Amino acid sequence: MSEIPNHPVYSKNVFEFITVANDFCIFLAKIETYSKQETIDYLQKVCPLLYIKGALLPDVEVSNPDANERFVTEGDWETLFNDLRNKFRPEDEFWFIDNSDININDPIKGSLAEHFADIYQDMKDFLMLYQKNTLDAKENAVSGLKHLFAIHWGLRIVNAMKALHYITLKSLPVDEDASYDIF
Predict the structure, then answer these.
(1) Range of the domain at 51
(2) How far separated are the first and last CA of the chain, in Å rounded?
(3) Is 105's pLDDT higher than 50?
(4) What is the pLDDT of residues 85-102, one digit of tens each?
(5) Which secondary structure element, helix H or strand E, spans residue 110, and what is its range?
(6) How many CB atoms lie within 10 A of CB 84?
(7) Domain-embedded: residue 183
Protein backbone atom coordinates (compact mmCIF):
# COMPACT_ATOMS: atom_id res chain seq x y z
CA MET A 1 0.00 0.00 0.00
CA SER A 2 2.95 2.36 0.53
CA GLU A 3 3.71 2.23 -3.23
CA ILE A 4 0.32 3.69 -4.21
CA PRO A 5 1.17 7.39 -3.62
CA ASN A 6 4.24 7.00 -5.87
CA HIS A 7 2.22 5.48 -8.70
CA PRO A 8 2.14 7.68 -11.85
CA VAL A 9 -1.68 7.92 -11.75
CA TYR A 10 -1.26 10.03 -8.60
CA SER A 11 1.34 12.37 -10.07
CA LYS A 12 1.15 16.15 -10.02
CA ASN A 13 0.66 16.21 -13.80
CA VAL A 14 -2.40 13.95 -13.57
CA PHE A 15 -3.95 16.03 -10.78
CA GLU A 16 -3.34 19.25 -12.71
CA PHE A 17 -4.92 17.70 -15.78
CA ILE A 18 -7.94 16.62 -13.74
CA THR A 19 -8.42 20.22 -12.57
CA VAL A 20 -8.42 21.66 -16.10
CA ALA A 21 -10.48 18.83 -17.62
CA ASN A 22 -13.07 19.08 -14.85
CA ASP A 23 -13.42 22.84 -15.37
CA PHE A 24 -13.80 22.28 -19.13
CA CYS A 25 -16.51 19.64 -18.62
CA ILE A 26 -18.42 21.76 -16.11
CA PHE A 27 -18.35 24.72 -18.50
CA LEU A 28 -19.61 22.68 -21.46
CA ALA A 29 -22.29 20.99 -19.36
CA LYS A 30 -23.75 24.48 -18.76
CA ILE A 31 -23.10 25.77 -22.30
CA GLU A 32 -26.64 27.09 -22.72
CA THR A 33 -26.03 29.65 -19.94
CA TYR A 34 -23.14 31.35 -21.77
CA SER A 35 -23.17 33.74 -24.69
CA LYS A 36 -21.33 32.93 -27.89
CA GLN A 37 -18.60 35.41 -27.00
CA GLU A 38 -18.19 34.04 -23.46
CA THR A 39 -17.94 30.55 -24.92
CA ILE A 40 -15.30 31.54 -27.48
CA ASP A 41 -13.31 33.50 -24.87
CA TYR A 42 -13.32 30.56 -22.46
CA LEU A 43 -12.42 27.95 -25.08
CA GLN A 44 -9.64 30.10 -26.47
CA LYS A 45 -8.05 30.14 -23.02
CA VAL A 46 -8.72 26.57 -21.83
CA CYS A 47 -7.70 24.74 -25.00
CA PRO A 48 -3.98 25.55 -24.72
CA LEU A 49 -4.08 24.43 -21.08
CA LEU A 50 -5.73 21.12 -21.98
CA TYR A 51 -3.17 20.57 -24.71
CA ILE A 52 -0.17 21.33 -22.49
CA LYS A 53 -1.50 19.27 -19.59
CA GLY A 54 -2.31 16.41 -21.98
CA ALA A 55 1.22 16.46 -23.35
CA LEU A 56 2.55 16.13 -19.78
CA LEU A 57 0.52 13.05 -18.84
CA PRO A 58 2.75 10.19 -17.67
CA ASP A 59 3.08 6.83 -19.37
CA VAL A 60 1.09 4.33 -17.37
CA GLU A 61 1.23 0.58 -17.76
CA VAL A 62 -2.24 -0.91 -17.46
CA SER A 63 -2.48 -3.97 -15.19
CA ASN A 64 -6.07 -4.87 -16.06
CA PRO A 65 -7.40 -3.67 -19.44
CA ASP A 66 -10.84 -5.05 -18.56
CA ALA A 67 -11.28 -2.21 -16.05
CA ASN A 68 -11.70 0.29 -18.90
CA GLU A 69 -15.14 1.88 -19.39
CA ARG A 70 -16.82 4.66 -21.37
CA PHE A 71 -19.57 6.75 -19.84
CA VAL A 72 -20.74 9.47 -22.24
CA THR A 73 -23.65 8.12 -24.25
CA GLU A 74 -24.41 8.87 -27.87
CA GLY A 75 -27.42 10.88 -26.65
CA ASP A 76 -25.23 12.94 -24.29
CA TRP A 77 -22.80 13.63 -27.14
CA GLU A 78 -25.55 14.59 -29.58
CA THR A 79 -27.24 16.97 -27.12
CA LEU A 80 -23.95 18.77 -26.49
CA PHE A 81 -23.13 18.80 -30.21
CA ASN A 82 -26.47 20.43 -31.06
CA ASP A 83 -26.12 23.01 -28.27
CA LEU A 84 -22.63 23.88 -29.46
CA ARG A 85 -23.61 24.00 -33.13
CA ASN A 86 -26.42 26.42 -32.31
CA LYS A 87 -24.02 28.48 -30.20
CA PHE A 88 -21.31 28.74 -32.88
CA ARG A 89 -23.58 29.37 -35.88
CA PRO A 90 -22.87 30.68 -38.45
CA GLU A 91 -19.16 30.12 -37.72
CA ASP A 92 -19.35 26.48 -36.69
CA GLU A 93 -17.74 25.12 -39.84
CA PHE A 94 -14.09 25.61 -40.73
CA TRP A 95 -11.51 24.08 -43.06
CA PHE A 96 -8.33 22.28 -42.02
CA ILE A 97 -5.65 20.06 -43.50
CA ASP A 98 -5.24 16.60 -42.01
CA ASN A 99 -1.49 16.01 -42.02
CA SER A 100 -1.79 12.37 -40.95
CA ASP A 101 -1.70 11.37 -44.62
CA ILE A 102 1.15 13.26 -46.26
CA ASN A 103 -0.11 12.33 -49.72
CA ILE A 104 -3.41 14.16 -49.27
CA ASN A 105 -3.43 17.91 -48.84
CA ASP A 106 -7.08 18.57 -49.61
CA PRO A 107 -8.89 20.69 -47.04
CA ILE A 108 -11.43 18.93 -44.82
CA LYS A 109 -14.54 20.64 -43.49
CA GLY A 110 -14.62 20.56 -39.72
CA SER A 111 -17.13 21.62 -37.11
CA LEU A 112 -16.30 23.38 -33.85
CA ALA A 113 -19.33 21.70 -32.29
CA GLU A 114 -18.15 18.26 -33.35
CA HIS A 115 -14.58 18.90 -32.22
CA PHE A 116 -15.61 20.16 -28.78
CA ALA A 117 -18.23 17.45 -28.27
CA ASP A 118 -15.53 14.87 -29.06
CA ILE A 119 -13.05 16.51 -26.68
CA TYR A 120 -15.73 16.68 -23.98
CA GLN A 121 -16.49 12.96 -24.42
CA ASP A 122 -12.82 12.01 -23.96
CA MET A 123 -12.45 14.33 -20.93
CA LYS A 124 -15.68 13.24 -19.24
CA ASP A 125 -15.01 9.54 -19.81
CA PHE A 126 -11.54 10.03 -18.31
CA LEU A 127 -12.88 11.89 -15.26
CA MET A 128 -15.63 9.35 -14.59
CA LEU A 129 -13.26 6.39 -14.88
CA TYR A 130 -10.58 8.06 -12.78
CA GLN A 131 -13.12 8.67 -9.99
CA LYS A 132 -13.64 4.95 -9.51
CA ASN A 133 -11.98 3.76 -6.37
CA THR A 134 -9.62 1.23 -7.96
CA LEU A 135 -6.06 1.51 -9.19
CA ASP A 136 -7.01 -0.50 -12.30
CA ALA A 137 -9.61 2.11 -13.27
CA LYS A 138 -7.17 4.98 -12.71
CA GLU A 139 -4.48 3.24 -14.79
CA ASN A 140 -6.93 2.72 -17.66
CA ALA A 141 -8.16 6.30 -17.39
CA VAL A 142 -4.70 7.89 -17.61
CA SER A 143 -3.32 5.46 -20.18
CA GLY A 144 -6.41 5.74 -22.37
CA LEU A 145 -6.47 9.52 -22.19
CA LYS A 146 -2.79 9.78 -23.11
CA HIS A 147 -3.39 7.49 -26.10
CA LEU A 148 -6.44 9.50 -27.18
CA PHE A 149 -4.40 12.71 -26.84
CA ALA A 150 -2.00 11.39 -29.48
CA ILE A 151 -4.64 10.17 -31.94
CA HIS A 152 -7.82 12.12 -31.23
CA TRP A 153 -8.48 14.98 -28.84
CA GLY A 154 -5.03 16.61 -29.08
CA LEU A 155 -5.54 17.01 -32.82
CA ARG A 156 -9.09 18.24 -32.27
CA ILE A 157 -7.82 20.96 -29.94
CA VAL A 158 -5.17 22.11 -32.41
CA ASN A 159 -7.69 22.36 -35.25
CA ALA A 160 -10.32 24.09 -33.11
CA MET A 161 -7.82 26.60 -31.67
CA LYS A 162 -6.95 27.82 -35.15
CA ALA A 163 -10.63 28.27 -36.01
CA LEU A 164 -11.28 30.09 -32.71
CA HIS A 165 -8.31 32.34 -33.40
CA TYR A 166 -9.78 33.44 -36.73
CA ILE A 167 -13.23 34.00 -35.23
CA THR A 168 -11.68 36.17 -32.52
CA LEU A 169 -9.51 37.98 -35.05
CA LYS A 170 -12.57 38.92 -37.12
CA SER A 171 -14.11 40.67 -34.11
CA LEU A 172 -11.07 42.84 -33.37
CA PRO A 173 -11.10 46.44 -34.57
CA VAL A 174 -8.62 47.14 -37.35
CA ASP A 175 -6.60 50.35 -37.34
CA GLU A 176 -5.81 50.91 -41.00
CA ASP A 177 -3.31 53.69 -40.18
CA ALA A 178 -1.29 51.67 -37.69
CA SER A 179 2.06 50.20 -38.58
CA TYR A 180 2.73 46.76 -37.14
CA ASP A 181 6.35 45.78 -37.02
CA ILE A 182 6.84 42.08 -36.57
CA PHE A 183 10.51 42.32 -35.70
Answers:
(1) 4-171
(2) 56
(3) yes
(4) 999 999 999 887 877 766
(5) strand 107-111
(6) 23
(7) no
